[in-house]
Design a protein that fits this description.
The protein is mainly α. Helix content is 74%, strand content 0%. It has helices spanning 3-12, 17-29, 41-73. The N and C termini lie far apart (67 Å).
Length: 76
């Protein structure tokens, strides 16, 4: 395919709701499509707890680094 035709094809392949709906419909009709199982409430709860813990660790590290920077700036 020459570069001019390729550019036109790429421009027409924009992401939008209609293209998404067509892709979902096509994927659902494929017999080899594997579907993801729904996570249990317990699994989702553990995931939330893990993400919350990770966020708190990140914020603690950020606070310690900010404090260290302030103390260094004031030669403490």
């Amino acid at each position: 395919m020459d570069s001019g035709r390729l550019r036109v094809a790429l421009r027409q392949a924009q992401k939008n709701d209609r293209a998404d709906a067509e892709a979902i419909a096509e994927a659902a009709l494929r017999p080899s499509m594997r579907f993801v199982t729904v996570k249990s409430v317990e699994t989702q709860g553990r995931a939330v707890a893990f993400r919350t813990h990770q966020c708190l660790v990140w914020q603690r590290t950020q606070l310690i680094n900010a404090l260290r920077g302030c103390l260094e700036r004031h030669s403490v």
